[in-house]
Each structure stands twice: as C-alpha cells, then as structure tokens.
C-alpha cells in the first residue's frame, strides 16, 4: 500500500485497462467504503452507487458513452447517481437521515429538519435542475475518495462525466430521472499502458496568501 502523496502521483485517468486483471472483492469493498464514509452537505449523503457486472449491459453503456474503452475493459464499472426527489423539503428520506443522528421525539430532531428544509428552499432552490446541481456537486466528494482509495491500493480509475447521453443511460439503468440522475460513471481496474507524465501548475501559480 503506497503513501497518500505517492498515490496522488500514481492516479491518472486510465483510458484503457488490462481486462485480464481483476480487482479482489476485499479491495473493491475498501473502495466502496471510502465512498460511503465521504462527507456531504448537511449529512444527507445524496448519492447511490450501482455496480454493473452484466457484460451485455456494459456493451450498451459503451455505445452511449462514445465507445470509450474503459467501459468494457475495466474490472469494475460503477455508476454514481445524484438524488433529486429525496432532497425535496418534506421527503421521508430527509426525515430518515435526521432520525439516524437525533431522537425522533426530541426538539433537536424537528429543529434540524426545519434547518435543512429552509436551507434547500432558500439556498439551493426547488427545481429538479437546482437540486440535481447541488446533489451532483456532492457526489464528487465520494467519487474523489473512491479514486484516492483505489490509488492507495495500486488500482487505476477513470471518472466519466458529460461524455455520455444521460437521457439514454437513464432509460437503460433506471428510467426514473425525477428520483435521481447519473452524475458520474467510474471505471476501476489495472492499467494496460504506462502512465503519461503528470503535468500540473506549480504551487506558486495556484496559491496566493493574504497577510
């Protein structure tokens, strides 16, 4: 297991995997656990994960993802959904998530629900598009944690966002775009080719200090 700093240097958007190499169940469980433990706004965890194992389904997904090779060469293909309808004020999901942290019969329980719902009304918005944008932004926290855990374990990954027909994929996978929508597709596996040189801006370019 490599250090966290080394894992950041190791990680890259792997475009093609060695389809003969498979991730162990133990290591993939660690990757999912990293996603599960991720932070989220107001502790709502507005994501769901779907592991796609079916070969025929992967081929259909590949077709809708501009024929990207990582869809079918990856050891594991994970679809990350961002919740929508569960985040509307008054939803049972919000009540359930608060109940996991506070006593249902306490004043704190009702107060926290009100705080969450007021935040959504006043800061997020009440359209599907506004809630999806808020929810999707948080899924990136879980996505990054899963990719980081994979890298620590010497496992490659590639996030795919925007490079697919979301409407067609939703129809294939859920057909319920009001409840949740696809945020990111994540592929995991082991690289077939050597990693290209990682190029980033220097610290001096990205960091400014106010004294």
UniProtKB/TrEMBL annotation:
SUPFAM superfamilies: FMN-dependent nitroreductase-like (SSF55469). The keyword Transport does not apply. Its cofactor is FMN. Residues 9-190 form the Nitroreductase domain. Keywords: Flavoprotein, FMN, NADP, Oxidoreductase. Belongs to the nitroreductase family. This is NAD(P)H-dependent oxidoreductase. It comes from Campylobacter corcagiensis.
